[in-house]
Every structure is written in C-alpha cells, then in structure tokens.
Specification:
Layout lengths: L1 H7 L5 H12 L2 H13 L3 H29 L3 H8 L4 H36 L11 H9 L3 H19 L2 H28 L5 H8 L10 H17 L5 H7 L7 H29 L8 H13 L5 H37 L6 H22 L15 H28 L5 H4 L8 H28 L6
C-alpha cells in the first residue's frame, strides 16, 4: 500500500490542498445556478437558508469526508471499508457520481471554451468571433452544430485528463494554485464593471431583497431542495472528491480550519458570481434565465451591448468560468481515478494513473457525446425518463439521487454507528473544538434535512406537485 500512496502522491502544501478543494467546489453551479436560484428563492431569504445548510450540513459533512480520506489514506471505497465494511457500498456510490457529472460537465465545459475563444476572436476582429450575431441564434447554432459542439466537449475532457495524469502535486495542485487566485481576480474585475452599470440596482435587489413569502405553506421545502441541491453540487460532497483530497493531505494540517474555509470560499465566489452577472443583466434590460440560457445567451447579450469593451469583459468572464469548470472536472475525475488505482493496488498490481485516467475519460466521453448530440433537448435523441434533456437525466442520477443519499448514509454512519471514528484524525491538527457540534449535526440535523432535500429534488425533477 505504501507504493500506491507514492503513486497517488500528496499535496505539497495546505494552500495547494485548499485551492484544489475550493476549485473542485467552485464550478458552473456557482456561476449560473446559485445567482438564479437565490433570486427565485426569495433573495436574502434563500441566502439565509443556504448558509444554514452550509453550516449545519456542509461543514459537518465536509469535515467527515476530509477525515475519512486522511484516516483511511485511500479513496472513497477504501475509506468507507476501513471504517465499516457494511458501508463500503457507499464508497462505490460516491465513485459512480463523477461518471454522471462528467457526462454533462465536459459538454458544458466545451461550451465555455467555445465562448472564451469566440470573445477573444471579437477582440481581434477575427472571423471566428461572435461578430454581433444575435446571442440566442449564435448559441442555438453552436449547440446544434453537431461535430463542433462534440469536438469542444472532447477538448475540455482531454484537458481534464492531461492535468489529472500529471498527478496530485505535479498536475492538480500546480494548476489549482494558479487558476483559483486568477479566477478570484478576474471575478472581482467583472463584478466592479457589473455593479457600476446604470440600472444595476435592480439586479442587486433581485439577489438580496428578502422575500419570505416563498416559504409559505410547503414552499419552504422547494427552496430547501433548491438550496440543498446547490450545496451538494457546489461543494462536491458525496462525489468521492473530498475524501480523495483528504487522503492526499499531510497529517499535521488542520482539518477543522479547512472544512470551514472551503464552504466559506465557495459561498463567497457564488455571491461574487451573482454580483458579476445579475446587475449587468438587469442593467441591460434583460431578465435572468435558468441554466445555460443565463450563461451563454443572456450574458453574451450583455457583453454585446457594452460596445468595444464588451469582448474584453466577455473574454475575461468566460476565462474565469473556464477555470472554475476545469478545476471542478479535475476533482470529479480524480475521485474516480484514485478509487480504481487503490483497487488495482489492493490486488497487487502497479496502478497506472495514465491508463486509468484515459479509461474513465472514455466512459465519460460517451456520456458527453450523448449530451452534446442531444443539444439541451433540441437534438434528435429521445427524451429520457420523461425529462426534457439528457443533461437532466445525468444530473438526476448524480445531484438528484446519489449525492443526497450518499451524504445521508455517511451522516448515519458517523453520527449513529461510529460517532467517535474521526476524532483522533481531526485532533492530529487541532483540538477539535467543534466535535460536539459536528456530532449533533451528523446525528440529528443532517439526516432529516437530507430526506427533505431528496424528496424535494425528486419533486423538482419530475414535477410531481408534492408541495404545490
């Protein structure tokens, strides 16, 4: 097993670990999902509920996953097996999540890459720019283009593989310590421009004006499900990633501090993303849209209306989205790669990071091909499971089903079956002052809320009308 650890690698610094963890957490969900969900969920009312979930579920589950990984010195499967063999299946569940996530994430990452290059083209007046086209026509033309959309998705997937193949310190850490600070700087620049546009105050009101009427009746469950789904997808919980990153962290580092900083940084970036997008959207007299429509249609229209400076801010924005998407896809893939490396080592084989990375990329590539051809529901493929798009189908299995269920099982394991299992691991780097709080959350707070979130997610995906 020692040779496997050498092959798997370690983070060179706590900063590298933190940047990789935050990078995995900060992704496309922050940049379009959070602002839109916050606005439709009652603005500041949604934010309060989100912060509640981040504190009572996000922190407790984050420290649980970091500790499981570092104590087990293995990926999700091995770490759960070391704690309790009866829960090994939950490790497998976590390892399956990245396959579903990468299937649509790489397609969307390809979209981002295309828009980044197109805005760069507009800066230099190149033929491959947007060139003033109607943003909706441009987007629909691209996603329905067939081969070009598929190729950009493959390019994004290959970039992910190449960084993961570089290993922990040589690939993931090296990229993250550059990409995440760069993302923050670019985000602040775009925020300053967005909030200083005439009419930006309407976007700020959309985000921050309290509207508790959305909580009336069973409405709070819808908002809870929306905030809860955002927590899982945004923080990369129950996807194997945080357990793996924990296994790469030095024993002397403070797990409590890191488990606090990751949700704080993630939420900060999500709020900044809202400030970067919504004020500019309202300033241009447009309404925010959900999903890719917000990121690729509405915002491209905003940049197009900015005149000569538009392509510059457009390129800067899509570059930061590219960094966010790539650091997240790296974390997703690493969660799966490390798991299969561990399984190979257990069988006495020398694990090949390169071979395993390409095999996982091949499987994810098939899913990405399906999502690309589906073209967000406008393509020729049949609609799956009564849902509108194949992206929704893959998201249903990952964010809708496996992530909340996986988190629930972990909370039950550490809250009820093994409440003291992670104590010695956390105390290697701190006095574990939050032990009582973490145990209380894992035992009494997380389970019922996770059940509500799961039910709400199912209601949202299938429009069951359970809470209408």
């Amino acid at each position: 097993m020692e040779n496997n650890n050498q092959e798997r690698g370690k983070f060179n610094s706590n900063f590298g670990f933190l940047m990789a963890s935050v990078g995995s957490a900060v992704g496309l969900g922050n940049l379009w999902g959070f602002p839109y969900k916050m606005g439709n969920g009652g603005g500041f009312a949604f934010l309060l509920l989100y912060i509640f979930l981040a504190v009572f579920i996000g922190y407790a589950c984050m420290i649980g996953e970091f500790s499981l990984g570092r104590k087990g010195q293995l990926s999700a499967i091995g770490s759960y097996e070391k704690c309790d063999k009866r829960f090994t299946f939950n490790g497998w569940l976590a390892v399956l999540v990245p396959f579903f996530l990468l299937s649509f994430y790489c397609t969307l990452g390809g979209y981002v890459t295309k828009y980044m290059i197109a805005n760069l083209g507009d800066i230099f007046g190149a033929s491959w720019g947007v060139n003033g086209m109607n943003s909706e026509e441009y987007f629909n033309g691209f996603i329905g283009s067939g081969a070009p959309a598929v190729i950009y998705g493959i390019i994004f997937l290959i970039l992910t593989v190449l960084i993961v193949m570089g290993g922990v310190s040589g690939g993931i850490e090296k990229f993250s310590v550059i990409a995440m600070p760069a993302l923050f700087v670019l985000l602040v620049i775009v925020v300053i421009r967005s909030v200083t546009l005439p009419g930006a105050s309407e976007g700020l009101a959309f985000m921050f004006k309290p509207d508790f009427s959305v909580f009336k009746g069973t409405g709070w469950i819808k908002v809870l499900a929306s905030a809860g789904g955002q927590i899982f997808f945004s923080l990369s919980l129950a996807s194997g990633c945080m357990i793996v990153y924990g296994s790469y962290l030095d024993k002397k580092e403070n797990l409590e501090k890191n488990a606090i900083l990751v949700p704080i940084c993630d939420t900060t970036v999500a709020l900044l993303a809202g400030l970067a997008t919504l004020p500019a959207t309202f300033a241009m007299g447009m309404q925010p849209a959900a999903g890719p429509g917000m990121l690729f249609v509405t915002l491209q229209s905003v940049f197009g209306a900015m005149g000569g400076a538009g392509p510059i801010f457009g390129f800067a924005f899509y570059l930061l989205v590219f960094f966010a998407a790539l650091t997240s896809s790296i974390g997703m893939m690493e969660g799966a790669v490390s798991a299969f490396m561990d399984r190979a080592a257990e069988k006495g084989k020398k694990p090949s990071r390169t071979a395993i990375s390409w095999i996982i990329a091949g499987v994810a590539g098939i899913g990405s091909l399906i999502v690309s051809i589906d073209a967000l529901g406008s393509g020729p493929l049949p609609k799956p499971f009564g849902l509108g798009t194949w992206l929704d189908a893959f998201d249903l299995f990952a964010e809708g089903f496996m992530m909340p269920i996986g988190c629930l099982i972990m909370a039950l394991m550490l809250g009820w079956f093994h409440p003291d299992y992670i104590d010695d691991e956390v105390r290697l780097g701190s006095s574990y002052k939050t032990k009582g709080f973490v145990n209380f959350c894992l035992k009494w707070i997380a389970p019922p809320f996770l059940v509500f979130i799961f039910i709400g997610q199912m209601d949202g995906f299938f429009s069951l009308g359970l809470f209408s």
